Amino acid sequence: MKTFEQSLSGRFENMLSWAQLDALWEQVNASDTPWYLYEVGMDVPQEPISAQDLPTKIKSLDQILHDHHNYDYCGIVYADNPEAPTLVKIYGPKNLGASCGSGGNKVWPRWVLSHMKPAAVGVALDETGKPSWWKNFSFKRH
Fold it and tell me: Is 32 helix (H, G, I), strand (E, B) or coil?
């Protein structure tokens, strides 16, 4: 059986258009299997989202994506199977980097929706929302 981190590295399809994302959200909301919502780098949820709260959480995520990814296309949400998703990776609009990993450093999704209980992955964030290693840098001008 794959670990959570191995599952995140599996095959995913990109929701290139906003219409594809809308269709994905419909599939997620229609699922009878509970979903965990994990904000990468934060505490791992111990319980799945309640069926009553799921549409509200999805609507909030969707609003964040639309507000902060001001493009004609989506392209920052990936699903293992858009028609019957079990794992969805949602990249933060303000921290895209090279999500394919071509820049050398792995860029973790900002949020993960999963039927599988998540395990801690990624980098812990400090109170400003930046990676905790960020405050170890000192910027000196010469």
Answer: coil
